[in-house]
Amino acid sequence: MISLLAGVAAGVMLGTISGLLPGIHVNTMAGGLLSLQVALIPVFGPEMLAAAMVAALVTHTFLDSIPSTFLGIPDADTAVSVIPAHALCLEGHGEEAVRISALGSAAGFLAALPVALALLVLAPLFQGYLDWGVAIILIGVAGYLVLFAESPLYAGLVFLVSGALGLFTFHFSFLGSGPFGFSGLLMPLLSGMFGISLLILSGKGAIPDQYFDGIQISRHGMLRSGLSGTIAGLVVGWLPGLSSASANAVVASVADYERDRRGYLFATSAANTVNAVAGLVAFYAIARTRNGVMVALAAIEVPPPEVLLASAACAAVCGYLLTLRLGSAAWRFAGIDRDGLTMGVIVFITLISFLLCGVFGLVILLFATLLGLVPRLLNIPQVFCMGAVTLPVILFSLGITVF
After folding, report:
1. H or E stretch including 178?
2. Strand pairing partners for 206?
3. What is the DSSP letter of 182?
4. Closest Cα partner for 383 from 27, 103, 74, 58?
5. What's the pLDDT band for 324 if we cut at 50, 70, 90?
6. How many domains does the chain have?
7. 3-state secondary structure at position 337
8. Which of 120, 126, 149, 156 has a 20 to 30 A CA-CA distance from 176?
């Protein structure tokens, strides 16, 4: 019990760090823990290491809403959700945005638990029928979004061009070597399209006073958004080749982040956390690794699933409370000059992109930023830039090689 609690405490700390520092993914933390297994396992046992990895993964899904809200910096898990969250911050509702995100993640975790227990028993029976359905699901979602957009032609073009950029990025990912070694190129790709490009067009002046006067979303809205987020999180967490970035596109097919920003934020936060739980269950039920944390987990002796689910529950409680606590400091951002903040964030993203991905990362960041400006110029939703992730996954699922 002591080793498990120590593991949860360590995981919460690492998940908090990775959630608050853009560019530092929780997979990196899991890899760091794995590299210390020779020293940690003889003292604490493999249960501590496993609990720490899972706790870090779950905690990260709560805390990553804070840089998205106040700085407008996305990572692979927040992506499109940065748009409504940062917009609420610029209207003085930054703390509300963080609280909605935390509540969405908590609701997603609670909804995922009974589903997870059912999947542990039933998944091996129907998994074979699901493996071939990834491309069909994503084609349906992407087709629905494009065909029912106000400008289907422009929406389709942006989706395809961003998809081409995504294919180019992933195909030449071996070039993404920085001073810190190799790293995934999703960070500069998504930060350019959903971070820097939006900051450039976000306007000037000081950040307005931040105040909290309650969460402006109805119980019915929470139920609807939570349901769509849970379904999206299960889809991307269970099926191969998908990620939380794909969940944003799935949620966007049923929730308009421009008209219902709070509902969309609640849904994507739920999907992010459900995705983490679904990945853990898939690891046990069908022996599939859906994220870097599960890959690291597969390298050690793991305890029974109920032990790690309990560790995840403890981490979810800690992550929720930490998010609320940090979100309550939103008032400190009032009066900060947005020009200086925008420039500082751009410099930070550029530096992190270079350190993690080298010169090629800077090239991807530049192209992604330029492409991210296009939707605003054409007056279409930013979500169509998600083709950068969605199109490569579709082609991969169909076994189509472009390069």
Report:
1. strand 177-178
2. 337
3. E
4. 74
5. very high
6. 1
7. strand
8. 156
Question: 136-172: per-residue pLDDT in tens?
Answer: 877 887 888 788 888 899 999 999 999 999 999 988 8
How far apart are the C-alpha atoms of 342 and 390, rounded to whole Å?
28
Contact (CB, 8 A) for 37 and 48: no
Report yes or no: 176 and 358 within 8 Å, Cβ to Cβ: yes
d(CA 227, CA 222): 8
Residue 403 forms part of a structural domain: no
Query: Is 176 inside any structural domain?
Result: yes
Element (H, E) at 363: helix 338-378
Name the pLDDT band for 104 (thresholds 50, 70, 90): very high
Question: How many Å apart are CA 374 and CA 366, to the nearest integer?
Answer: 13
Is 14 inside a domain boundary?
Answer: yes
Q: Rounded CA gap, 299 and 305, in Å?
A: 16
Residue 365 within a domain:
yes
Domain containing residue 116:
2-397
Residue 45 Cα distances to 26, 28, 31, 56, 302, angstroms: 21, 21, 17, 18, 10
Which tokens go with 147? 């065909």
Q: Quote the tokens at residue 234.
A: 């299960």
